Amino acid sequence: MDELPALVTEAVGDAAVIETVDVGGGDAVVVTPEATHVYRSEGLLSDESLEGYDHDVERFAVDAGRRKSTIRLDGIDGERSFTVPGSVADGVIEAVLEGVLRATGVVAEAETVDATFRFSELTLVVTDRQLLKHVGSAVWDEEFEAFRYENLADLDFEEGSVATQVVVEADGRKQRVKVPNEHAGRVREDVQSAVFEFHGVSSLGGLRAALEDGADDETDRDEATDPNEDEGADDASEGGFVSADWSPPADQDVTGSRGMDTAESGNEDDSPDDTQPETTEVDTEELADEVEALRETVEYQTELLEAQGETIEQLVDELRRGR
């Protein structure tokens, strides 16, 4: 569309236009940081119209059909939606996503969106300041992760037979993002380009050297802290979840030995001793039983988590193959 209709121009005003998508038949979708404007030209069955869809929303989803895709924006006032032809849906979705990120403050006004990727239930957005990741049925909602380049400690790419993992280390933790191998080259190129430009380097080796030089103070603070203590604090904060690599402090051999010693002492001395508590043996045995029950529960939960993880990976692989 060479020129925007007067109805659209009046509604957009001085706002910056992220994208104008010609959907055919004289209709168009005009996306600004604040809203998406859907223009319908005059036809045999309808008059000329313009509908605006605000970007300050909590959830952005897409229902993809064979010929049409429905864009759904869910905000405080409820859900609103519009449809576009499937042939132009990707361009509309990409532009609307950028608008939502800007309207909700995830992406700053002066920040540049370099690339957007959508793989099944994974959405990746590469900007000149951060890498954004969202996993779920929606294209975007409030449950997302942001990795700012200024907090980056390392960046790597691990190639597999089916997928490549983008390994991002920031704030003392490593995050892995799996992307299909057929798109891994483009993802790697865009991520590296943005990160390298931010840090003023031209290679992964140069990036690591720059990060080491700029993180001396933080490294000293990390060395002064026992990493095992940090991991324990993380486990305790996650709603009581116990990881497979962690055992309760009470589950040690010294507990079992102490219980056995107490039982043997009771057999050697049959005379009652009024000064010694009679519940010591019982309490120790109960503690040992509780520890054993806890161990069995942890092992069972670990097996369930491993089985669920294998099922999810298999499902993702099948979905990527179009099954």
User: What's the overall geometry?
Assistant: globular
Low-confidence stretches: 230-268
User: If strands are numbered along the chain, what order do they take across the biggest sheet?
Assistant: 1-2-3-4
Q: CATH class of the largest domain, anyone?
A: Mainly Beta
Average pLDDT for all residues: 80
> In percent, how helical is the residue content?
25-40%
Give the biggest sheet. 4 strands, antiparallel
The span between the termini is 38 Å
Structural class: alpha+beta
Secondary-structure element order, as H and E? HEEEEEEEHEEEEEEEEHHHHHH
Q: Architecture of the largest domain, according to CATH?
A: Roll
Structural domains: how many:
3
CATH topology grouping of the largest domain: PH-domain like
Oligomer: single chain
Supply the CATH superfamily name of the largest domain: Pleckstrin-homology domain (PH domain)/Phosphotyrosine-binding domain (PTB)
